[in-house]
Design brief:
Strand order of the largest sheet: 2-9-8-5-6-7-3-4
CATH superfamily of the largest domain: Glutaredoxin
Helix content: 25-40%
Number of helices: 13
Oligomer: single chain
CATH class of the largest domain: Alpha Beta
CATH topology of the largest domain: Glutaredoxin
Largest sheet: 8 strands, mixed
Strand content: 15-25%
Shape: elongated
Number of strands: 16
Length: about 375
């Protein structure tokens, strides 16, 4: 059991994996996936002032093979967001790319004019301009989002100046640098910060530098909760083809039961889905009201809404039980938030995550345990019992 910041989910799941002797595929790449403690600490620091940054004017190439000077062509006189990726990364980089994709939509006409998005490869030896272009296409990168690579000594020099260098490219940290070069203002934020929150920070930088549009800005909305900042509103698609925002539509104000699966699984998935069906019956009218049951596919490329609808029908899923898929990068980001991401679908975790979002109480249950044992944990979460 854990209660508090949502990022403690990752620590809770890590402890359970150790206690059960399980080894998810993600654990084979711990050098790249941030440790739960680090994830929790970073997630709690949505806005950290970065000091001592001096951007070198190194010669690089963008994703189109065009030569660029990083400072004079891409940063000088601009408000920028900078992240750090490499194209063979299969863990944190795709979700960060998905966040940039959403961020460019939120920026609208300001992208490329008032704000520039920059992605620096941490593996320039592998990441040619062609590879960067192909990687960015899956996120529908627009003009104003520039990806750069170059000679390794030049890229290393840039990464060191920005505090992002690691001897092994896979060791880079998931953070963003937000900067207003004109004013010399820099912020370091977690790479999984909600795109809407990042857009708000960039807009504040624009306003402070006098670059914002002259018309009055719309009234600022309420600040995002820690839970919304952590989980984000990445879009998922249910078995009916309906799109849902992860936090706003599926988690906020609800008790949730979450597990991962894939439709062609013949091992543990049918057993866990049978348990979920029993929980559905136990919940009665509460399902779809104050309780949601979320079954998230670890194979979104194969598991289309049509396939999930057939599977949901076979288990007589009622409103409130969502079989979820979507764009691969978005699904991977959601799975990361619940500690459920794996590189190979057959290594998915047999764990139910049961959480009371309003109270912050989260518990886990071994997915192959007797359904009565899992139901007891659910009852405790419903009643907010530690």
């Amino acid at each position: 059991m854990m209660r508090g910041h949502p990022a403690t989910l990752l620590l809770m799941i890590g402890l359970m994996i150790g206690s059960l002797g399980l080894r998810p595929c993600a654990a084979q790449h711990e050098h790249h996936d941030p440790a739960p403690q680090a994830e929790s600490a970073l997630a709690g620091q949505a806005d950290v002032v970065a000091t001592g940054i001096s951007v070198p004017d190194v010669a690089l190439f963008n994703q189109f093979g065009q030569p660029v000077h990083f400072y004079s062509d891409l940063v000088r006189g601009k408000v920028v967001a900078i992240n750090f990726i490499f194209t063979t990364c299969t863990t944190i980089c795709p979700p960060m790319g998905a966040n940039y994709s959403r961020l460019q939509q939120l920026l609208g006409d300001r992208l490329g004019k008032e704000v520039t998005l920059l992605s620096i490869s941490t593996d320039p030896v592998t990441d040619t301009p062609e590879r960067l272009a192909a990687w960015s296409e899956q996120f529908k990168a627009k003009p104003g989002w520039t990806l750069v690579t170059g000679a390794k000594p030049d890229v290393d020099r840039l990464l060191k100046a920005l505090g992002a260098f690691a001897p092994d490219p896979a060791d880079h940290s998931p953070f963003l640098l937000l900067g207003d070069e004109t004013r010399g203002t820099w912020r370091r934020v977690h790479g999984f910060t909600a795109p809407a929150e990042v857009e708000k920070m960039l807009s504040e930088m624009l306003a402070a530098s006098g670059q914002a549009a002259s018309e009055p800005a719309p009234p600022a909305g309420p600040p995002l909760s820690a839970a919304e900042q952590y989980f984000t509103n990445v879009h998922l698609v249910d078995q009916h083809g309906t799109q849902h925002r992860l936090y706003q539509d599926l988690l906020r104000g609800k008790v949730v039961i979450i597990h991962s699966f894939f439709s062609s699984c013949e091992g543990s998935c049918p057993l866990m889905l049978k348990t979920a069906a029993r929980l559905q019956e136990r919940l009665g009218d509460r399902l779809g009201q104050d309780v949601h049951l979320l079954s998230i596919s670890v194979d979104p490329l194969i598991d289309t809404p049509a396939k999930l609808k057939a599977l949901a029908t076979s288990f007589q899923a009622k409103p409130g039980w969502y079989f979820l898929t979507g764009e691969q990068a978005y699904v991977q980001q959601a799975l990361h938030k619940f500690g459920q991401y794996v590189e190979k679908r057959d290594t998915h975790l047999n764990i139910f995550i049961i959480g009371n979002e309003p109270t912050g109480l989260w518990k886990k249950a071994f997915g192959l345990a007797p359904s009565a044992d899992i139901a007891q944990i659910l009852d405790d979460v419903l009643e907010d019992k530690d």
